[in-house]
Structure formats: structure tokens, C-alpha cells
Amino acid sequence: MSNINALIGSRICHDLINPLGAISNGIELLELAGVAQGPEMGLVSESVLNATAKLKMLRLAFGAASQDQTVSRQEILATLEAVARGGRLSYSWNVNTDTLRLDVRVALLAVMCIETALPLGGDINITEAANSWSIQASHDRLNLDPDLWVPLSKSAVASSLTPAQVHFALLPEMAREASRTLTLSHGADWVKISF
């Protein structure tokens, strides 16, 4: 079933990225023609860039991935930088090589889980060393909802999730698909997901 879910995620992202690209190209043409001036067009342009960045991140996190497929370090850095632009969250990708797509998918799902614990923003550090991954953040106002984090600590799925929390259900499943074991640890002002 996870493969069907991943294929659906890939299809949705693929179908949306093309119209967003067309809108972006249209805005560029309007700017070249001198028509696209003013704060309104700036807002439209910025919104398209944000939506495109978020969609690329969602494609990496929710999309289909084969066993030997890799993602370039440059693509991940560009995507995370674009997603962070103008937001409360920033991302430090401390991975020095191109990476297996299965591992990237698990890492980004873990990032999304940690994002929910940072309602006031913060920096999320993603590190890989000797084939061991760590996704970590700290903040003095960390919010770990036990209904989400307790099941995750047992590699289980919470009994009820909203669409905005679906990554908590997918993370354990995608970790198993990548032959990874999740470990969760936290303190009063920090949280870490390892695999």
C-alpha cells in the first residue's frame, strides 16, 4: 500500500509543478514587457516561488522512490533554502554527498514531524555520518504533542490524525521501506529523530 501512496504523491506533485512553472514563466514575460510592476505582482511572484519550493519538498518526502535512486545534494540544498525563504524555519543540511532517495524521504518526513514541535520557528539540523542520520532541533518553547510523539517513539501510528499530521503515519512506514530503525529522543527544549 505504501507504494500506491507514494505513487499518488508523485502524481499530484507532477501534475501541479507544470502549471506552477507556467505561471512563473507568465510572470517573467509580464515583467519583461513592463506590465508586472508593483507590490501585487511581487506578492504573486513570491507565492508561486513558495508553492513551487514546497511542492518540490513534498515530492521528495511523499513521492515514489526506488532502491538505488539518488538525489543530488545541490537539489536538496536548493529546495530547503527555497522553502525556508521568508519563513520561521530554517534547515541545515549537513550531508556532504548525493543521497539515496529512500533516506532523503525518511529524513524529510522526520523534518516535517519536528516542524510541528516548533510553532515559533527554529533551525532543524539534518546530519548524516557513517550511514547514521540525525534530525534535531532545539527551542525553549518546544511543543511535543504526546498524541503524536508517543506512538512515533514506538514506530506506531497515532489513532487519529489530521491531514496536516499525515507525516507522523508515513515516517515509520517509510523507515521500514528504507530498512531503517527510528529512534526518538528529547529533552525539555530539544528533540531528535535518528535512523
How would you describe what is shown here?
Helices cover 53% and strands 17% of the residues. The two termini are 22 Å apart. Helix 2 packs across helix 4 and helix 4 runs antiparallel to helix 6 (166-177). It has helices spanning 2-32, 39-62, 73-84, 101-116, 146-153, 166-177; strands spanning 70-71, 89-94, 99-100, 122-129, 132-138, 183-186, 190-194. It is α+β, with helices and mostly antiparallel strands. Strand 4 and strand 5 form a beta hairpin.
Report a brief summary of the structure.
This protein is α+β, with helices and mostly antiparallel strands. Helix content is 53%, strand content 17%. The chain has 6 helices and 7 strands, in the order ααβαββαββααββ.
Compute the number of helices: 6
Helical content band: 40-55%
SSE order: HHEHEEHEEHHEE
Shape: globular
Topology:
Blueprint: H1 2-32, H2 39-62, E1 70-71, H3 73-84, E2 89-94, E3 99-100, H4 101-116, E4 122-129, E5 132-138, H5 146-153, H6 166-177, E6 183-186, E7 190-194
Parallel strand pairs: 2-4
Antiparallel strand pairs: 1-3, 4-5, 5-7, 6-7
Helix pairs in contact: 1-2, 2-3, 2-4, 4-6
Give short descriptive properties of this protein:
single chain; two-stranded antiparallel ribbon; 195 residues; alpha+beta
